[in-house]
Amino acid sequence: GFICYLPIIIKNKDPKLCEELNRMDKLLCLGVVNSDEEYCDQEETYEEYCEKSQDMIKCMGTIRNICLNGISLAKSDVDLCLEAEPYYCLNQIALQKEDSEICNRWEEYRNGSESSIAGCKKSVAIKTENEKLCYEINSSYLQDKCLQEIAIKTENEKLCLELTSLGSTSEVECITTIA
After folding, report:
1. What is the model's pTM?
2. What is the Cα–Cα distance from 157 to 27, expressed in whole angstroms?
3. Residue 101 Rama label (left phi>0; alpha psi -120 to 50; beta)
4. Largest CA distance in the chain
């Protein structure tokens, strides 16, 4: 959905591109298009999303954070992303910049965890086809999934032989997928 169109939305800044998206993606998209924190603070921004909410204050805070996530994506602004709740933006900015160091910034977020860092690094490693990044992942399962995806993407059978945690058939499956 939205993430696939993100580069086009950032380039064109056309609100019409947001119209067909689901509610939350639409809000992210409008944050990207407007790229202005004042837009996220306008009452009209919340009305559509919070009209049926039991807790208006909480709803407004959530909507503002999603909107700010959109702005942080448009500007590749990691600090703004972390100021809001970074679920939508931190991994995407790391991918945009092809920079796995950004993944370590999950440590600064209150709910950031090793799995957040690992998932982020896995995505960057696969996009950049850099198997060395896979070895920085603390989860042996995610590390092997990372290696497997890069092996298949780059048709590198040697990487298939490095899989250790996915079960005894994983090496064979990896190699036969390439072949």
Report:
1. 0.83
2. 43
3. alpha
4. 57
